[in-house]
Give the backbone structure.
Amino acid sequence: MAFHNTSPSRQGASLIANRLRSCSARHALIFPAIALSGCVPGQSALHPAGEDAAEVAQLFWIMAAGAVVIWSVVFGAAVYAVLARRKPTSERAADLVVLGGGVVFPTVTLGLLLAYGLTLLPDWGPGKPPDMRLHVSGEQYWWRVSFEGPDGERIETANEVVLPAGAVVDFVLTSPDVIHSFWIPPLGGKMDTIPGRENLLRLRPTVPGVYRGICTEFCGASHTFMAFEARVVPPEEFPAYLAAQAAPAKGDATAFLAAGCGGCHRVRGLAEMGSTGPDLTHFASRTSIAGILDNTPDNLRDWLANPARFKPDVRMPGYHMLPEAEFEAILTFLGGLE
Ligand code: CUA
């Protein structure tokens, strides 16, 4: 009986083989892309810009190096077992391999790694007080950030965190709605913001730069868009930033108040009623709108017309139905809140 390449089973097999080949070719491109996308320095835990992140990165590289060595030894042993010429081995030699490789080696290696890992745990005892405290509230889907001013008063902003390099910062984390998780990968570890309690996260940023913070706990439809900018500035620049944020706003809030924006947004000095939405006192000085769009007039126009286009399920309604003159007046007002 003759077999032809065209038989249905052969065709099926070659189809599957082709699929697999094209699939693996595609995956060969996709996997490095995914791996590399994790290497954007502004959002990478492996490009540390803070004390804690540096320790975590070091732990990662030591663990990775250990894993590569162990994998090579195990894989080498497997290859040896398959390819080596079979010859009898004494029972004593076999016992030594099992005891050495199966008991002594893992116990010593894991013990050393554990001891090293324990030295990286944060010190929970009463430590030195922080240089500054920052209150951060995770909300659906934005970040409320408030500094403690020199007289203890709160200076509120949103979707951006500005920190002086070298300072020990205590983040006081909470949430009014669901659990979020606050993470600035280049500065250190993450911590949940939990309704009804305050979590404390201590970080010490060391390298000035612009980093990207994210929410890492699924919190609703726009979880993935809950980003913010973390800016580490040289310490001598920080007091000027804080003073600028503390100053009241200037501008004509008539259209803003007439459209009801003041019911949710505070603009210190001009509209003091609402606080469910982000504080907009110095909105124009921020680099982003809602943490995800560049703060440009065109983006602001699109955002104001229909925020849900950018953040599904966002609480803020769209204002595309406002008369054009009123809409423009609000844009002008927001654009002037330096
Ligand atoms: Cu907030 Cu995920």
Remarks:
- The pocket of dinuclear copper ion is lined by residues 138, 141, 180, 215, 217-219, 223, 226 (CB under 6 Å).
